Amino acid sequence: MNIVNKIEELSDWDIDEMKRHDNANELCSSDAELRKRAVKIKREPGHRIFANRSLQLDRIKFYGFDMDYTLALYKSPAFEELTFQEVIDSLIELGYPEQIQDFVYDRKFPLRGLWYDKLYGNLLKVDTHGNILTAVHGFKFLSGHEVREFYPNKYIQVDDRIYVYYTLFNLPEIYLMACLIDYFSKVATYVEDRTSVEFGENILSFRAIFNDVRNSVERVHYKGKLKEMVCANIENYIHKDEQLPILLDRIRSHGAKTFLLTNSEYWYTDKLMTYLLTSENNGQKRDWKSYFSYIVVDAQKPLFFAEGTTLRIIDPNTGSMKLGSYSGQLQQNEVYSGGSCEVFSKLIGSMGKDVLYVGDHIFGDIIKSKKQKAWRTMLVVPELNHELKVFHEKRDLFNTLEELDTSISELLRSFDMASNQGPDAVSKIKHKIQQCTHELDMNFGLLGSLFRTGSRQTHFASQITRFADIYASTVVNLVYYPFFYFFRAVPQLMPHESTVDPEEPMHFKSWGDEKSQPASSGHHHSTFDQVVTTLPRFNHSISASASIQTHPDLPLHVTHDHDDDGDPDDENQDKDGQDLEFDLRSRITYTPPKRNTELTNK
């Protein structure tokens, strides 16, 4: 069936059927007009799940979920403001000046994925390769010259002086670090040098400020009253999605298992899950634990994905752990504490790739689960909706950047190595590109987009691409996809594939097309017999009548590992289990090489 007929067939489907074939528009990628018609089949952007690697949902037998910022999405900026104030109170108890009580949280400044340089006190936005995109000292955005004073090549790699802010819990911490560095840099009683501030006979290094803030954040989260305050006004801090219980129920009814794997302690998990999932039907209350096949709290990820801790069972009535290490089968409605991925996988009967784990922590949830057990991964990125909104509303800026880039290419096309000076217009266009990129960045926030600056992807974006098989703004987007759905990754094109027009004539020879030239009498070449005598001798002999194959045949079967997330036992086979055959001899000319008699006759 050709593409046009396929589109006509799609147009006759009802809306529900069209939603179940989200990727049908890939059939139209060669024709712009057909693409416009087929794009209507796509789900609305807020409901979409995006794929970095192909994933077939009917291969998934276990759906695992983190709790914080995954099943339980905290309201922004209310939760960040609460955390911000609690950490300030903790710092004042450590001796920090009372004036820091005047700090007010600004959600437009902090950005997930920033790096903090403990030596110089700088917040850094870094690209995929470690090149510095933006550097901030307090609230001062450093110029290119100032960045080079700290980092001569505007380049840095992760080491013990760098802390990466991976999670949404880090947002108030990022802003507080900027507030403190700015405060100590500007108040007259403090004298700043490159790595610290001095006041009287005291020295406070930027590393010490970081340690104090980091310890205060840990204390507020694990020993303070932050969680009690959330539970006391849970409607103000936790977003309740009515689709969440529907999602979990549908997974269970489909025959797959669900599990909750969270670092939070049981009492807090119980409070949040009760709010999110407890329902009443005909006067009967349904316990939230019935939505999960297995429940693990206090998991201590990422340690859970390495050596782990002792697996214990929790009494749900008291919240206390029972004595000893648990070694039996995992039971529904029971709650377990700790353990390891190795033990957990054995107890539930998982093979690894039959698990889809959903979380928000790119390191603790996604990278470690992918590396250690090859779990399939889904990253929750709540910021995604804002990114999509800006991308849609400021599409004209994206188009302008593309046009400016094309203009430079056209201007420079006629110049080569013999040219001594380029056109004056290039510098003007570069200036416009900088101006346009800056305007676009400011629409995302003071530090720009989570995923890029201009044409360069951030380190955080590269981590998503590398380790998250799929990603979405919320976990409930899974409810919009059928269990037989196939998430197919967008082809990753290299520059020579994406920028060269395939219809443009190619006035060059391919490497390897040159004909062999006769050997010059002035050069010495080893003869075939001389080469053979230098090869190692084998103890066995080959029969003189044996048929020697001197070249490979054109394969009649699929030889590549196709990107369809297939089962190794049935990939490249038809429904009857026979190898798929594709006889290409009528379309591909394969001429075996002939022996070079110039060499063999010498």
Automatic annotation (TrEMBL):
Any one Pfam family here would be 5_nucleotid
GO BP terms in the entry:
GMP metabolic process
Q: Enumerate composition-biased segments (Acidic residues).
A: 564-573
Q: Where is this region: Disordered?
A: 498-527, 549-602
> What terms describe the molecular function in GO for this protein?
5'-nucleotidase activity; metal ion binding
UniProt keywords (A-Z) are: Hydrolase, Magnesium, Metal-binding
Per UniProt, the ranges with Basic and acidic residues bias are 504-516, 574-586
Family, according to the entry, reads as follows: Belongs to the 5'(3')-deoxyribonucleotidase family.
Query: What name does the UniProt record give this protein?
Result: Cytosolic purine 5'-nucleotidase
